[in-house]
Amino acid sequence: MPPRPYILAETNWKTVKETPYEVVVLPWGATEAHNYHLPYGTDNFQCDYVAAESARIAWEKGAKVVVLPTIPFGVNTGQLDITLDINMMPSTQMAILKDVVDVLARQGIPKLVILNGHGGNNFQQMLRELQALYPTVFLCTIHWFRVIDGRNYFDDPGDHAGAMETSAMMHIAPDWVLDLSEAGDGSSKPFKIKGFQEGWAWAQREWSKVTADTGVGNPYESTPEKGKRYLDVVTEKIGGFLVELSAADAKNMYE
């Protein structure tokens, strides 16, 4: 397969120096257990796929977009006792992100999208701070797994390694998904306090106390066909967003 000009890791200086990129996409995942049947790199593989397919769609419509390599470590402070769940503190993420934005500002690239693939990551406050420091770069973030309501495609999408993520991985990397007979049922314990259950109060979950198999959500309805249908809609929507963002005047973003 020839190098894709919208994937930075595959392309070259000859292409890059001749391309007026408008939008940089930075996928950000995590390395963590996903029930018994999915690989530790699930969030990263999904980010890679969604970023690349969305960028392809945008590129073919004329958008000058480029995808950076996925950052493979996320905030896993609730899973420090789960073997080889690799935690990256938010302060470390901020330092990395600041360096990336600094490069874009120096080089005159006007827009950055963080494509987030891990529920423990939250970049909004970081972007508030960095936007004040780097006003020439428009900063935004997308949680790819929230773009489309999974309940339209799955009876129970699940929260972590459930039907949505399992189906997605069955489509993206089927050889890395164990047979569902190997999977746990993803049952989990909710908080006892009503405010946390209803979602208007928040506290970090202690993962090993919440779930026995590290999953939250039953994966048993998963199929690769469901994964493809869901991902096709997600990437089409994100691709359209990248087209709009590429064409937009970063100094005039409001109607």
Describe the structure.
Helices cover 37% and strands 8% of the residues. The chain has helices spanning 13-16, 42-60, 90-107, 124-133, 163-172, 194-198, 207-210, 224-247; strands spanning 23-28, 65-67, 111-116, 138-143. The protein has a four-stranded parallel beta sheet with strand order 2-1-3-4, sandwiched between helices. It has 255 residues and is of the alpha/beta class. It is globular and about 50 Å long. The chain contains eight helices and four strands.
Q: Nutshell version of this structure?
A:
By secondary structure, this protein is α/β, with parallel strands linked by helices. The chain has helices at residues 13-16, 42-60, 90-107, 124-133, 163-172, 194-198, 207-210, 224-247, and strands at 23-28, 65-67, 111-116, 138-143. α2 crosses α5 (163-172) and α2 (42-60) crosses α8.
Major sheet: 4 strands, parallel
Low-confidence stretches: none
In whole angstroms, the N-to-C terminal distance is 42 Å
Task: Please state how the strands of the largest beta sheet are arranged side by side.
Answer: 2-1-3-4
Order of helices and strands: HEHEHEHEHHHH
Q: Report the total helices.
A: 8
Write down the overall mean pLDDT.
Answer: 97
Strand content: 5-15%
Percent helix range: 25-40%
What general outline do the C-alpha atoms trace?
globular
- Helix/strand class: alpha/beta
How many β-strand runs? 4
Computed CA radius of gyration, to the nearest angstrom: 19 Å
